[in-house]
Amino acid sequence: MRNKITIVGAGFVGATTAHWLASRELGDIVLLDIPQTDTMPKGKALDLMEAGPVLGYDTRVTGTTDYADTANSDVVVVTAGMARKPGMTREDLVGINQKIITDVANNIANHAPNAIVIVVTNPLDTMTYMAYKILSAKGFPSNRVVGQAGVLDSARMRTFMAMEFNCSVDNTHAFVLGGHGDEMVPLVRYSTIAGIPLPDLVKMGWTTQERIDAIVQRTRSGGAEIVNLLKTGSAYYAPGASVAEMVEAILKDKKLIRPCAALLEGQYGLSDMYFGVPVVLGRNGVEKIIEVELNEAEAAMMKKSADLVRGSMSALKF
Questions:
Q1: Among this protein's residues, is 180 annotated catalytic?
Q2: What is the pTM (predicted TM-score) of this model?
Q3: Distance (Å, whole) CA 3 – CA 169
Q4: Which of 2, 105, 205, 267 is deepest in the core (most CB within 10 A)?
Q5: Which of 19, 111, 173, 180 is flagged as catalytic?
Q6: Angle in degrees, CA 14, 73, 50, rounded to 5
Q7: Terminal alpha carbon distance of the chain
C-alpha cells in the first residue's frame, strides 16, 4: 500500500512541497485548500500529475477542498496561513494564523488521527505549539507533531558557507537551533566544512571571524531577505524542499538528525514550548531529542531566542 501525504494549503509553499514530494515518489499526495479557492487545488494537482510522464514519476496527486479526502494520511504537512509581507514580523501573524491552525488541527484529528503532523505556518514555533495543544487533546503524542524550522535555516546557512568557501554544499554541515525568527541560534562551533569546524577554519586563515559573523547574520535574516527581494510573498522553493526532506526521513524511517521544532520538557532548561533542537526523525516522528553541550555564550543566545518565542506564545488566546 502506498503512503499517503496530505498538504494543507495549496499556495506557493504547499504546491512546491507537493512538487518536490511527487518527484521523490514518497507516496500519493492530497493537496487541500479552503473551499473559497474553488477548483484551484484540482488545477495544481492535475498539472503536477501531467509532469509525471516527463519526469518519470507515478505519484498520484489529488486536489480538493474537502478534508474527507485526507482520511488515513500517514503524514500531514500544514502550510496554510497568511505569509509575511514586507515590514511584518512573524509575531504579527499570531492572531490571524491561530484561527487557521485551530481549524486545521481539528480537521486533522477528525480525519487523519494516526498521522504525523509537520507544521510550516509562521510564527513557526508558536503555531506548532498551538497545533500540538489541540491535537494532544485528541490523543496525539508530542512526537507526532513537529515544526519545520532548523532544516530550512540550516540549509540557508550551508548555502552561505558554500559561497564563502567556494566548495560544494555536500561539504557543508550547519547547526541552527532556537526559534525560527530573528534570534535563531546558528551554532558556529558545530558547523563544519568537510568536518572542519568553522572556528578552526578561521585559525587556519581560510576566512575571518567577521565573515563568519556575516554568515550568521545573513542566516538569521534569510527569510526576511527573500521577502524584501520578492516584494510580494515569501520563500517557497527552499521551505518546500526542507519539508520534503523531513517527510522522506519519516516515511523511510531514516533516523535523520536535523534541527526541528519539538516539544521540550526540560531539555535545554525549557519546558512546555516548541523550540528548534536537534532531533532524530523516523517513522514515529520525533524519535529522540538530542541535547548538545552549550558554552556560556551559546546558552545565552538560546535563552534570548526562547524569550522571543515565549513573547510570541503570549499572544495566543486559549
A1: yes
A2: 0.96
A3: 30
A4: 105
A5: 180
A6: 50
A7: 39
